[in-house]
User: Which sequence fits this backbone?
């Protein structure tokens, strides 16, 4: 092989042509669901167990009962001190006592736009986050955000098609991503925050070497203000992908969706998270997919109005991390970027009070169930541990939650009970 390469002979190209490009073989496999298969399997298992039981005598059955009881006792028994001593442990002496703090300086760019900077050794790389306020959006438009964010990076602009945009991002930056940030603010002195407290931002996150920062900011500006939202085929594709991804997640991670339903009853953040990631979001995706296929102009109008609402300097914030000298050199470029952003929302933008976060209805506090095509049942229950304004030891509560998951619930639900799994999550 080395001799062939050294002589300039093509080695892999003929194989690729023969086995892939010019290969005329085609196999079509069609998989058809069988609605009665699960019951057939269950009937066969019942028949096998009944036959095994019928072949046993009374003493053999008693042995099975005794063995099962012995197994459960062994599963629930505490490990001996000798066995526990063989497990490596992390002690307090292994932990760093001093909390590492990230230096943060707060200043303002032109027009009063907040700028957060973090001077750290970054080897000449500039990390920039451009954040836009999403709380001026009506709650009804929140499910649209994932599609909007995806179109910013995957639909191209008026000057660059989708492929050219991705190539330019790859050539001039270390990457640009678009997503959302949804958090509940912490109360005074670290207390539990108000249930209607929300911080909701669109986040465009990029990184580049310091000499390429102007190129990165130019790309971010183009994506925010000039993305080709009128991309029906791409929108339909993205919505279908999201729908399929959620349907698969229901089967493998149903407990997460049950947890989101519980959170939606307690806080505005929980309610918004469910609208943008949970069962309600799945229903919204199906509606948006139908609209995208049958009435694209109406969905396009919603996307454009969303852009016109959030693209404004009065809802803009920039977060920058880099070497100290790079931060000083970046400020004029950031000022120029801010100056090119619209000063205020568009004329047809949603109103400032459209979101009405403080008056969200939240999900009703009632038992509920959803049917999915799965042999696994996901069950979740929750309650409020801390009241708004309460000062609580969240560290201790987190440790207790972890211990409950890895101890009692694991031993009793997973090991002894034979369930698919079990755990405890804390969301203060």
Assistant:
């Amino acid at each position: 092989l080395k001799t062939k390469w050294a002589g300039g002979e093509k080695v892999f190209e003929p194989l690729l042509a023969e086995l892939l490009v010019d290969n005329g073989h085609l196999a079509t496999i069609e998989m058809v669901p069988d609605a009665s298969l699960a019951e057939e399997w269950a009937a066969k298992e019942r028949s096998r167990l009944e036959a095994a039981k019928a072949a046993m005598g009374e003493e053999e059955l008693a042995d099975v009962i005794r063995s099962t009881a012995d197994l459960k006792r062994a599963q629930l028994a505490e490990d001996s001190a000798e066995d526990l001593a063989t497990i490596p442990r992390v002690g307090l002496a292994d932990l760093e006592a001093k909390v590492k703090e990230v230096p943060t300086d707060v200043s303002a760019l032109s027009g009063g736009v907040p700028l957060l900077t973090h001077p750290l050794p970054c080897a000449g790389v500039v990390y920039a986050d451009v954040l836009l306020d999403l709380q001026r959006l009506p709650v009804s438009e929140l499910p649209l955000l994932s599609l909007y964010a995806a179109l910013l990076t995957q639909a191209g602009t008026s000057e660059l098609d989708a492929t050219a945009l991705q190539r330019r991002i790859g050539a001039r930056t270390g990457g640009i991503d678009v997503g959302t940030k949804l958090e509940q603010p912490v109360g005074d002195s670290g207390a539990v925050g108000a249930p209607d407290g929300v911080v909701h931002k669109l986040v465009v996150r990029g990184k580049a070497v310091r000499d390429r920062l102007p190129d990165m900011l130019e790309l971010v500006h183009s994506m925010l203000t000039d993305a080709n939202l009128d991309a029906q085929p791409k929108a339909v594709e993205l919505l279908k992908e999201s729908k399929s991804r959620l349907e698969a997640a229901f089967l493998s991670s149903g407990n997460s969706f049950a947890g989101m339903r519980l959170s939606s009853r307690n806080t505005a953040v929980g309610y918004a998270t469910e609208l943008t990631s949970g069962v309600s979001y799945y229903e919204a995706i199906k509606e948006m997919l139908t609209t995208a296929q049958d009435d694209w102009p109406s969905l396009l109008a919603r996307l454009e109005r969303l852009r016109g609402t959030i693209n404004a300097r009065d809802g803009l914030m920039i977060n920058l991390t880099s070497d100290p000298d790079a931060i000083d050199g970046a400020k004029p470029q950031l000022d120029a970027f801010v100056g090119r952003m619209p000063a205020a929302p568009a004329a047809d933008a949603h109103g400032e009070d459209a979101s009405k976060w403080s008056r969200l209805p939240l999900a009703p506090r009632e038992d509920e169930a959803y049917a999915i095509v799965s042999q696994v049942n996901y069950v979740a229950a929750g309650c409020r541990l801390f009241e708004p304004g309460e000062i609580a030891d969240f560290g201790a509560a987190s440790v207790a939650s972890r211990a409950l998951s890895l101890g009692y619930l694991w031993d009793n639900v997973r090991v002894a009970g034979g369930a698919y799994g079990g755990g405890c999550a804390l969301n203060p």
Q: What stands out?
A: Residues 173 and 216 are 6 Å apart (CA to CA). The mean pLDDT is 91. DSSP finds 15 helices and six strands in the chain. The radius of gyration is 28 Å.
